[in-house]
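Colleagues,

For the teaching module next term, I've prepared a clean inverse folding example: a structure given as tokens, and then the sequence designed for it. I'd like students to try predicting residues themselves before seeing the answer, so please don't circulate the second half yet.
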């Protein structure tokens, strides 16, 4: 029944643009692990968050093939930008083709390299940060990125269930994701909700003091 409800929810989520459909198709055809794609539900949730929060300066840590990136770029206000961090050049090549098709490439700045290193070098403050990178480093990413999030800004994290691993805690990645989940819910600077969407999505808002 749960799988049927998940499919029902997907079918009752707004449709994608042609460029997003291209990214979905190219990812499935050219990679063996298209389950890493954010997908329509997460992408649409991010779009709504960008629009309702009026976010104009966004950081994405772990771009993969650019589905979430483009989902947000499509609804950015004029002059808005997304900085997306990605190490894998194959993933980037799929993303770039999708961005070219969309005509919105000017809104997206892709930085190639080790995201852990790049995060420490960034000097901007961000309205919204979307974390979907290497799971074993989730706690360190939060420590590095929290100071770069504006008061009132949103910190959004994907895969917070880690396929159920956060219950059993039998591996390094599961323990790291669980540690971040604990950090967020116990941080007095953040107001946090964890949603049962796909592999779990957390939305935290940095309180305005």
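(Answer key — instructors only)
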């Amino acid at each position: 029944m749960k799988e049927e409800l998940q499919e029902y929810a997907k079918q009752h989520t707004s449709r994608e643009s042609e460029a997003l459909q291209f990214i979905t198709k190219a990812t499935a055809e050219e990679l063996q692990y298209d389950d890493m794609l954010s997908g329509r539900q997460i992408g649409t949730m991010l779009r709504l968050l960008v629009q309702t929060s009026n976010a104009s300066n966004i950081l994405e840590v772990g771009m993969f093939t650019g589905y979430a990136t483009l989902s947000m770029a499509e609804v950015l206000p004029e002059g808005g930008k997304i900085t997306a961090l990605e190490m894998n050049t194959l993933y980037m090549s799929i993303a770039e083709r999708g961005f070219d098709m969309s005509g919105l490439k000017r809104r997206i700045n892709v930085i190639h390299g080790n995201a852990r290193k790049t995060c420490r070098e960034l000097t901007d403050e961000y309205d919204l940060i979307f974390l979907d990178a290497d799971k074993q480093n989730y706690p360190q990413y939060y420590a590095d990125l929290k100071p770069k999030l504006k008061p009132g800004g949103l910190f959004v994290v994907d895969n917070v269930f880690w396929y159920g691993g956060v219950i059993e805690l039998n591996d390094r990645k599961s323990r790291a994701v669980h540690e971040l989940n604990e950090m967020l819910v116990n941080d007095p600077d953040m107001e946090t909700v964890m949603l049962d969407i796909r592999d779990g999505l957390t939305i935290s808002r940095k309180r305005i003091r």
